[in-house]
Every structure is written in structure tokens, then in C-alpha cells.
Amino acid sequence: MYLLGLAVLVVLVKVSLQFDLNDPKTNLESIIRTSSSLTPHAEVINYINGTVYGRKPGQAITKLFYLEGYNIGQKYPTKDGDYMSLSREFLIYRDIHTGHILNVFQNPFSDVPNEVFNIANDPVNGMFQQGGIVPFKIFPNDVVVFNLDFVLEYPNALDPDKYSRYSAGKYYNAVELFSYFANYSDLATTKQPNVVAVDTWSRHSQFLPWLEMGSTPGSLFYSSLSWKCPYFSCVRDDIMELINSTYPKYTRAPKKFEEPNETSWTQFKKVIDQRRAQGKPDIQIPLVNVTRPNQPIQPHVDMRIQQVLMNKTVTLHYNGSSFTQIYSEGSLDLFNIEGYLTFDMIPKNGNYFVSVLDKRIYRNITSGKVMTSFNNPLTNTTVQIPNASVQRNLTILSDDALSMQVPGANTLGLLMTHSESITFGPSVENERWSVTNIQGIFPERFINEKQAFFYGTISQFSSWPLWMKMNNTPGNLVTKVTFGRVCSHH
Minimal CA–CA distance to 335: which of 294, 367, 357, 379? Predict the structure, then answer.
């Protein structure tokens, strides 16, 4: 293993003069090769598989449904050196008990059935522009990650005055966190236009309109993995049958740029408007059998991943950043964080008991210097940063841990989600809450080593930390880090 690592290092040193991810052109082409293909108009399918949770203030998360489907797209260069991205996406929601595609969802928050609307967004277009640098990190063991994070806020397509049952407010507000992982040497030492990659995606958004939650306080949390799927080989049979029978255009990428982009909100509005114009009811619940099986499907964590994580001490090195999510006020970058996370995980009563030691430092977002105090731009006050070494215990429910094989990448993926809610006093305004998505990627080439190298993303959505002294400032904190295992023999 040492000789192989040395050989890779020698190769990478030789190409370092020609390949520089801080060069805007190289950086842009690398993110295109990782997320899609440099070959003009080559169609690429990115398959998506994950879980969606809901949460109301004062409560822990509730697992609602699985999310599965794909984006099919193409990219091509413009005369200015940018890349046009043309795509459409189709995803379905699966019953967490049966695995079947949902047509009707029994809403645990409202206790009423909802008509389920598949995600059928066409188009989903954009532009990758040359000039800026997509943030990246190079790990040991020949891994690189590119991070693209977005705080989205714009007028809600569903005006609450006209669509009160479906609209959370005047503005649509969400956070989308993407990380694209690939082999550094594939980018640096080859001319492959389309490299193997595995991606993570976390999202925090308002309730979907078809959940009919209106302005009820609460939100959704998504956690998923995605990967490039050769043609339609990854697409499950029931999804493919639905595509062929009802959504045939989703077998090809768009051919021309069109605006505006479609979303679940705009698609839902079109259907409701059409039904109203025809004098039909907004919501039409189909007759389906919603009987639960005696033995519902249980999520599974691959035994090889368990052997890597369980009953031993594991240390991760991580870095990332924290920023705000405040309804109708956009977002502010606050600080960068870096540290080591050491944990012991053991199976306990069918769940996973985790003892964690988190040693971190906070860095100024501009200078990169380590901070002991923080000038809070939201309150215009200076606060002291607390002891950055925290020991804590937590339990991850077995129902919130799911692994999957990533076809074509010789990789296993792991999704874990953990939430906490502590309310001080009778009002949820004093609640301390968090929802944490842990998304791990386990290359099979390392899986049998004594200290198997793995990497991934941790994304946390939370109330303001007490040390920030935010008082009753509305909004929440978003923290995202990428990590890699610290292996003593590498």
C-alpha cells in the first residue's frame, strides 16, 4: 500500500505544474468533468437516492418518505468559455414501509391523506461561468471534493392569498448543499471528459405544497447520495415503467435553453390552475390500498460499513463553514471551522450509540486566522468563542441509517440523520434544536484495510448556538463540512 501511495504521489507531483485547480479554466472544466461531461451535448444521468424528513418546532424529525430518481442533462461550451447546462429531472417518493411509489401519502402532521405529486421538473437549466473558483479540497488517498452551496430565496410561485393551503408564505426559502467527490488523479493525469464521481446533497426547505401544510410552522430536511448512471442501468423498474408510460420526454435531455426553470412549486401551481379552470377540485385523491405490511421494510447498513465503523475508535479531519438562513433576509457567511472528530460507535438496542469528541477551531472567513472572539454582524456585538473541545453522547436510530451500493463507482454509501430538540420553558421560541445529515462514501478498494479510508459530508441545520447570544433573532444556522478519515498508516 505504501509503494502504491508513493507511486501516485510521484505522478501527481509531475502533473502539478500543468494541473492547477486554482486556475479558473481548469477549475471550471474539472467541475464539469466531475458533475457531467466535457463532451459537448453528451447526455449524462445523475441518479439520486435519499430520504426526506419533516419537523415541526418543539419536535424531533419524522421520517416521511424516500426520494429516488434522476436528472438527465447535457453541457456544452459557449464562445465566452462558459458552459451551458440543459437538464430535466424526474423523481418519485417511496413509502418507507413498503418501498412502493407513493400516490397517496398519509400525512403524520395533519393526519389527512395527501395527493402525491412526482417531481417532474422541465427544464432545469443554468450556466457554469468561468472566472470564479468553485471551492475544493484535496484529501489523502487521491480524493478531491468540489462544494457548491446555495441559499435560495425568491417570490413564492404560490401566492398565499390564492393558495393558502399550499403556501408557506410570500417567499420561497431553502438551502441546497452539494459536494462532488472524485479521484484527483482522474482529473489531473487523464483527459477523460467524464470521470467517476459520487455526490452528496442536503436540503432544508419549506413543506412541499402537496403536503397541504400552508403556513404551519415547520420544514423538510433531505439527505441523499447521487452518482452517474450509465444510460438507464440504475433506474428501478417501477420508475422506468412510469417514465415509459407517462413521462417519455424524461428519457432525453433538453436540446435548447428555455426559461424559467420548473420546480415542485411551479409544477404544482400549473396542475392546480388547470383543475380550477376546468371546475375540478384542487386535490384528487386516487383510490389506492394503503394497508401496511406486517413486517415493514427496515433500513439496512452494509456489514462491511459496520466493520469499518463499529466497536473501534475512528478519527475524522474536517473543515467547512457556517452561515445564516433567515427568512426574507437572505444569508450571511459567519465563520469557517476546522477540527478533528473522534468517535466510538456501538450497536445498542437495535440503534447506534455514539460517543463523540469534537475538537475544533474557528477561522475568520476573510483572513483565515484562528478566532477567540467573534464580531457578530447580526447583533453588532463581540462575543467570546467557547472552549472548542466538546464531548457528547448521542443515539442514531436504526431507522435513520441507510446504506447503498453505488453502481459503477466501486463504492458504498451511507446516510445517517440525527436530530435533537430541547425546549426551555413552555414556548418553542426557546427551543434548542438541530438536524444533522451524515453522508459517508466508502471506496471498496480500502474497505478491507485495518483502518479503511472513507470520506464524506456532514451538514447541520440548527438553532443559534448559545454562545452567539442571538436572543430572539429569527432564523437558523447552517454548517457544512467535508471530512476524511485520519489513517495512521497513510
Answer: 367
